[in-house]
Amino acid sequence: MAGRYVMGALGLALMGLGVSLVWAQSPWDVAVWLVGSIVLHDGLIAPLVLLVGVGVALTRPGVRGPVRAALVTAGCLTAIALPDILRPGPHNNATVLPLDYVRNWLVLLGVVGVGAGVVVAVRHVRGRRHRRPL
């Protein structure tokens, strides 16, 4: 019971930190980020996940869950990486983004795709085992 209160207090403290960091930014930057995230989610990510989910459900019934999970994860990774991919601004400190952001984003998307493929393959193998006659 005490753990809930500790976690609740920690959550409130982190929300307060987030609010203070937002207030420290320019209101225009925050508004652009909020509107951009809504447009990206509602205009691209959600329709894409729904369309692919319906398409996969019609062609391969047991695959829809892993494919949709992979698409949602890829969408989140893209939403996080997109600002630095589209506008890699100059940095005074060379250690801020020392690695190739586009390459690492593509590697993560590949890992997500391979992970979804492994889940689908394991489900397929398990399904075959259960269907075999004894």
TrEMBL record:
**What protein am I looking at?**
Integral membrane protein
Q: Mind listing the UniProt keywords for this protein, alphabetically?
A: Membrane, Transmembrane, Transmembrane helix
Membrane found in the keyword field = yes
- Show the stretches that span the lipid bilayer: 34-58, 65-82, 102-122
* Protein's UniProt keywords contain Membrane: yes
